[in-house]
Amino acid sequence: MELEFLGTGTSTGVPQIGCRCNVCTSTDPHDRRLRASAILRSQGKSILIDCGPDFREQIIRASDWSIDAVLITHIHYDHIGGIEDLRPYCLDKPIGIYAQKEVTDGLHTRLPYCFAHLNYPGIPQLALHAVDDRPFTVEGIDVLPLPVWHYRLPIFGYRIGNFAYITDANNIPDETYKLLEGVDTLVINALRIKPHLSHFSLEESLEAVRRIRPRVAYLTHISHDMGLHKMVDKTLPPNVRLAYDELTIEVPD
To answer: What is the pTM of this model?
Structure first.
């Protein structure tokens, strides 16, 4: 199994428009972060996790353009704003999008022309699949939803085999920690050093990593307030790393 990080930034991306801080003006490519998204490749299939407004740029520069299905963590724009750009993937048949019912309902509202009886030629053909907290299968791959909280919004992370992906969380329920037992590779959000209302801070994320005890953890959904990649990354525990755009990792089966 392989994971490619398409983006590791927060909703504003890095650099943030109008900011002249040392991170936003850094020439280190590790400090340039598009909105958080990733592609998981397993069993000859490619599953996109979230499809934000930077998707077109992300997939053009990706190592492989293939996408067979999409998992969405929640309805916020930085995680669904690129769905219109999935058009090349559904020319012959609809592409499957899997998410909570609140998300699939929201996509009907935000993209009504995709579901009209008289479809305009060339619009994305989307096959929306509403899922709950029970396991489901995507393109023959077993997926376990991981319920977490994004402040007051219940959202999903996902576990696939020994891999788990959680973004935008600020609280992981005890029941979800049980679902994370035995995870080898964890991707989890860490917005910045200081606490935040709706996202894990760095220390809160590290505390979750200590409790989950993966072999390795990668931090994502990072803002410019985290600091320079090269400075922060060397302060982390040996099994924790800052993810960065275009990083590809292997996940043991």
So the answer is: 0.97
